[in-house]
Model the fold of this input.
Amino acid sequence: MRLLTALLFVGSAFAQSVPMGSVAPTTAPPACTPASGYAHCRVLTTDYTQAGSSDSSYFPLLVSVTLGSSRVQNASCYDVIFTSDSGGTTKIPWEQEACTQATGAGIWWVKLATLSHTVAKTVYVSYDNASISTPQNTGSYAPTAVWDSYTSSVYHLSNGTTLSLLDSTGNANMSNCANGPSATAGYIAGGAAFTASPVICAGSSSLDSTGNRTLSFWTATSNCSSVAVQAYLDRSSSSDYLVVGCTGTVWAASAQNSATYTKQSTVAPTSAWTHIAVTKTTGSITHIYVN
Done:
């Protein structure tokens, strides 16, 4: 069983927390001028028809793009920057999840102040600057700024080779997962593979809250006829839990201390990657969404 990429414990509406996926132009993009010192630039345009029924604020946009061979000069891809203007002068926050210098292929999360559901939004990326040797997304443009407007914690699960449960927000809410997870390829970059069921992931006790919450993640299985999801949120004395397991698995109440949890189950498709989101209002889990 695998959990993939951004595992979100969120304090705002679900519509504001779910990544759109790679941006897709709907019309011919405008021209851009590379930022000073950079040789190339591209325009990324959102498809507003995929943005729901209302605008979203502080939206983390997933950008997956290949910039080309010999177009990224720094080994850590530090010479890739994102701006809100066509001249490359106004940077916006971004987090690099993965990037390969040789091909310029990478995955970045870019913060949009507003994602419109009626008009296309543009993001500009400048790249190819041999003089860059340090990260350019620092200070107010730092990776934590992509998430901190509403998110409690984000876990990308690293690169598929080394498993990391580091929190991408500035809250430092480290996570841990029972039943021996290991690094594996995921739907977006890396994932966590589990050979035992159920999978139990717990975050920091600072995630506890009686307010509205959203938890979202990707999962896929190769050895279950179907998948059951049980979300345990709003635990009274310690950290929240997410439990994912094969249907029919006996989940010991003593192990999860179920008396102190609010829980609900659903069945998700198998084999294919499946997006699951759990929403909670004060005191109860209201919905578990599948895809």
